[in-house]
Amino acid sequence: MYLTPQHVLLAGATGLTGEHLLDRLLNEPTITRVLAPSRRPLAEHPHLENPVGDPEMFLPQLQGRVDIAYCCLGTTIKQAGSEQAFRAVDLDMVVAFAKRAREMGARHLIVISALGADRRSPIFYNKVKGEMEYALRAQDWPQLTICRPSLLLGERLEPRMAEQFVGPLSRLIPGKYRGIEACQLARAMWRLALEEQDGVRIVESDELRKLGK
Question: In terms of CATH architecture, what is 7-211?
């Protein structure tokens, strides 16, 4: 069964994948409203509502009914400045955003996690992503879709050294470990929004690439 969301809540619209997803959402004739809070202003659009500022301050103040929520939030330890600051974004902010989205009526949450996410992992990054997934499951969403992409490929405003070095090689790796273009991930996330499937669904990177073609 397919559903067509009309009112969308999007976090992370200024990021690599979020930019592609926002563009897709605003060009969908069935969507009448995209609520996309961000730290810096987005280009104006008739169907876009863009509260600007510190998400922790205005997140509780977001108003209006939404059908579905997308979370594209994410940073790196280097960008955040510390492990604690990284956790504040990739765990705490994601969980707070999801909670508010549920309060606003969203029945489906689609969130970007990471390949290898596991709350028991000895790798800090994977451990935090796993803790985030665990916390979202505990919110008891009617429909929760967790996307686990491998290395994200695309041009960022602030290039990441590791991605620049590993990116070309990641295109040659088979299966779910092969790198995925951010535009492919955004297309896959939109397609996943059209599918009704109760409970939790984890979508690995190889399936995301297929959905995003």
Answer: 3-Layer(aba) Sandwich (3.40)
